[in-house]
Amino acid sequence: MIEWIDERILALFTKFSHWFQRLTGLTNFFWARVCLGLFAVGILISVANYWFPILATETPLLGVMLASIWLAYVLAFTELTHRADQHFWSGANTKHSVQRVLSENAIERVLLLVVGALLLVLSFKALANNPEVSIWPQIYVSLDPGYLSSATYFAIVDPLPPGKSKVRQWIEEMQAGFRKLQPLSRPNR
Question: Does the keyword Membrane apply (predicted)?
């Protein structure tokens, strides 16, 4: 059952990644790095909450120390997706370079999404009990497991072969049209 859910989620991420790659030329590794950046911001909000209370729940000192481990993981994962993107554009196989670090376990990926949904529900409950706390940082931090899970799904998508994106084709067509509109150069007098 969980493998079936995982396959459906991966199919959605693959469909979106391929559509975006055809449109812009940016691969799924770009989106993995975006999700990792969002995850890192959530971690930094949690760390800032230790000194400046902005969340409904207090961040313990252990949470601040664990944040450094998570940030190191995010940096390593980001570097891995950057290298996979470079391998992709050089024509090398990217599948093995990314998947050796990522979890092959579908249960872990789906569990991260479930935990993210539960944290979101719990954050709304915490906000109801503590109305003077800002809602946006709390929701943002609650989405952290979803960001990490999304980064994992984006990283394991197989990108399309390199080709011209629609945006690049539009730009080249506009440049060709502008070249036709440019006046002919006149000889100096």
Answer: yes
The pTM (predicted TM-score) of the whole model is 0.73
pLDDT recorded at residue 85: 82
User: Own/partner pairs for 81-89, CB < 8 Å, 24+ apart?
Assistant: 81/29, 81/32, 81/33, 81/36, 81/151, 81/155, 82/29, 82/33, 84/29, 84/155, 85/27, 85/29, 85/30, 88/27, 88/29, 88/159, 88/162, 89/162
Q: Above 80 in pLDDT, residue 126?
A: no
DSSP string, 75-102: HHHHHHHHHHHHHHHHT---HHHHHTTS
What does the pLDDT read at residue 166? 80
Question: pLDDT at residue 47 above 90?
Answer: no
**Model confidence pLDDT, tens digit, residues 74-125:** 888 888 888 888 888 777 665 555 554 555 677 777 777 787 777 777 777 7
